[in-house]
Specification:
alpha/beta; Rossmann fold; seven-stranded mixed β-sheet; 12 helices; globular; Cofac_haem-bd_dom; lipoprotein; ChaN family lipoprotein
Amino acid sequence: MIKRRIIWALALCLLAVPGMQAQDRPAYRLFTAEGKPVSFGTMLKDLASAEVVLFGEQHNDPMAHWLELQVVKELAQRKTGQLVLGLEMFERDVQPLVQQYNTGELPDQAFEEQSRPWPNYATDYKPLLQLARQQKFAVVGTNVPRRYASQVAKGGLSALESLPAEEKAWLAPLPITVDFTLPGYANMAKMFGGDAAHAVGVQNIIQAQALKDATMAHFIRQSRQPGQLLLHLNGSYHSDNHDGIVWYLRQAEPTLRIRTISTVTQEQLQKLDKENLRKADFVLVVPADMTKTY
């Protein structure tokens, strides 16, 4: 008993010494659009009431990938038989392979050899597909085949007009409207130098981005049946500021209940930096020195 009291006394002394007390090192924090801290459970409750959730990730951020897996697990329980997982990471022409893998018809090796998975597939996206296969909810690839985005970046959307009908089926219906004044696209123009000498080239790059946004929005809507929740994973820039994919979803279906998440990095996690306010309905903040997956 005396020995135990001595140990407790020493511990209390150590805690009283400045700098010796342990401090929390949270790996992430969640905030509302207005910058108020929010719990994971409160966020999940709100997401479960939506029809479409766009989880904007930084592709090399391990915390975003881990949290995506947690969100999928929770929503699969809350929306039993009603969850659909959509992925920017797979293009529409490999959707038959995604479906075959999802139903167990296609083994891992064959799927990975044929579906053009991203380099970080094994660590960041494979666990999601395996979970979907185990729990029997659908997975859809929504992105435009990259070769068409490349064509548009070089020659504009008009480059798609001569495609065969079977290839146009992998795209959003043509013609695609592009609003160059949308904040995301206007920011791209600034980044790429939208002066007169480069105007056409920059507009083509923005049109390629719009092709991706419009195509993902189209297949999100096509893949979701009434009563279902479609959780879509995409790079944050495709849905930040309720822009990009969100804009195209709203054009087609103004009353669709959409929630967005954006992943950002900050030096501090105590409050949301001003530039990250209202970036999404929920903002996932990760420490700036977090390890990257690549």
